[in-house]
Fold these 2 entries.
Entry 1:
Amino acid sequence: MTTDSITIRRPDDWHVHLRDGAMMQAVLPWTAAQFARAIIMPNLVPPVTTSAMAEAYRDRIRAALPAGADFEPLMVCYLTNTTDPDDIERGYREGIWVAAKLYPAGATTNSHGGVTDIALIRPVLERMEQIGMKLLIHGEVTDPAVDIFDREAVFLETKLAPLVRAHPGLRIVLEHATTEEAVDFVRAHRGHMAATITPHHLVINRTSIFQGGIRPHLYCLPIAKREKHRLALRKAATSGEANFFLGTDTAPHYAKLKQAACGCAGCFVAPTALQTYVQVFDEEGALGNFEAFASLNGPAFYGLKVNSGTITLARRSGHAPECVAVEDETVVVFGGGVETAWSVV
Ligand code: NCD
Ligand code: ZN
């Protein structure tokens, strides 16, 4: 017998780029339709570096929500070389910050203001360790001499391993894990580490980006890796293990900026996120672990309550738009414009 529908507690998205202004207005309804809460990435221009900026951004998000939406943005501090440990602690105790994000400077979109040397933020990391504030990491080295497909694995060895040794009490989320090495690293540190896994990294590999020609809408960072890594991510995500949970890394960019001589990194996956994830769990024969990945493991790691209410997904063909309009521009939807095997009821 096959399972034709699945009902789970309302899920959360532990990694979202909402942007701001007209873009946020256009993309936020797609995230709020599927998720009860989301970790809001702080890589705006300028980045969200102070608790005052985070409060103002949180207010703008709440004001942009569709009427009747029940959605809670969880704010994250963008760490810089000069982040003040006292502001971190104050914002955390006041309930403004849920976590802080380490972007190695230059690693990805709007990361040029990030951290140039982890040694410079030692006092911040020590304080976070003391107060139990989570550290979220974009785990790629930025050395242009390192092959782009190796940047995550090299980061684990040269940056993350020493960081974990120096701060054994720090609770860390390795964001958007893309390699077998990342899965192994997180498992080896399971007491105090977790990883988010995106829908797209479960369904594309690096060859997909060049299928029949170059496909800019499949380009994101960290870039998709070889097939063996995709398979390792699928096993980890669907395993039910507490240290792997849902984070879409939905990262909208205007189509014209991705379809360019030097195109932006990021996939807009919000409209098809749950449909993609549940299909993967179905294909792996692991629907029984879907609720843990989507709705339970994340809150447990962050020390938050699970959501009340449920959402139902059915094995029934569905459809997401090919693109979403933002004023006079468009944003292309990952998996949009074609039938999906599952839909949100
Ligand atoms: C993200 C973005 O566009 O903000 N891009 C991406 O490719 N994932 C940044 C990030 O999470 O690396
Ligand atoms: Zn991201």
Entry 2:
Amino acid sequence: MKMNVEIKEGLEGIIACKTSISRVDIEDGKAVLEYRGYNIHDLARYSTYEETAYLLLFGELPTKKELKAFEEELKDLRDLPAQIIGLLTHLPPFTHPMVVLRTAISYLGSMDKEKHFMDYEHSIQKAKSLIAKIPTIIAYFHRIRTGQNLVHPNPDLGHAENFLYMLKGEVPDRIEARALDVDLILHADHELNASTFAARIAASTLADMYACVVAATGTLMGPLHGGAAQKVIEMLREIAVPWRAEEYVLKKLERKERIMGFGHRIYRNVMDPRTIELRNLAKKLAKMKDSKWFEIAEEVAKAVYKHKGLLPNVDFYSACVYACLGIPDDLFIPIFAMGRIAGWTAHIIEQYVNNRLIRPRALYIGEKGKKYIPLRERG
Ligand code: CMC
């Protein structure tokens, strides 16, 4: 059989589907990221996570009335069934919270009698439920593993604010809540990133939405994707003081090791627009909290650029933001998922609506036509 043998490693530059959810482009030497046609900088300045999630799911900005109704629906869906709380209690406390999240989402799927209904209305309902419940799963597991009482969702609080409240047991101040809100907006979607592609591949087989989100969650966890955020804070802790940053970077590069939070498949020589926003947030929070992370991060960024020419990506300064918010290191990736769930579900629905099985080919490079020798003759 003849095959087209041009292979793009890592599918670099391959257009695998059409989407009208988000657009990443380089225009006049600058990176542009838009959700449904709206620039990420405007969304970070003026929108809320709830409004952005609505935009991603429905394709248009909501009216005041629509947004209020959407926010109320999310609030009503926040709490978890007793079985899920039971699961969170039974999982070993050392389980990585991303594994917990993946498992809890799968369990939620097992409880949804309508999980196989893939029409638009049912899919939107499942998306809302997942957007609402993921923060509760993360916060409840953290409270359980640290032996603290559960803090139930507070309907007076917005999405990001309520998450910090459930996690820490105190209503956060306005600046902290807004910082997380903006962070979630910035993480809400990013075209065909690896986890979204995993979700779309699963959706293309007509797997149910929970199965698709489990595929995405597993994919996000890897250190070359969302897992980088946790690795960034581990690196900053190891460096500990700004003046050791350059030496640390040089040693890593000498050993040909990757520096987490740097490099991007699309933003090669241009700054990721999300990084610009997150750097501003990290700077503001570090000043407010008298935190050293931003200063160390800046020295790392200078050294990586000087010695390897790489720019920081979305995971780099978001690690500083989370650290300044007092979020435990292993919750960094789950918070990425908490933002990205809006994009994942929007992409799953887009795939269902105009589906064709995603099934590429591989070029076989192994041996061919070998003679099978029965075990008794192989010695
Ligand atoms: N540290 C050191 N060298 C790097 C890094 C890095 N973080 N990233 C890329 N390079 C080098 C790589 O070694 C190669 O160099 P050379 O040409 O000398 O061999 C060159 O840059 C091109 O790298 P690549 O592996 O071909 O790039 P890619 O598009 O396949 O990989 C990436 C993109 C994000 C996986 C990679 O940059 C990386 O491993 N970064 C660190 C992990 C990370 O921060 N991931 C988060 C990605 S952004 C948000 C997200 O998806 O969550």
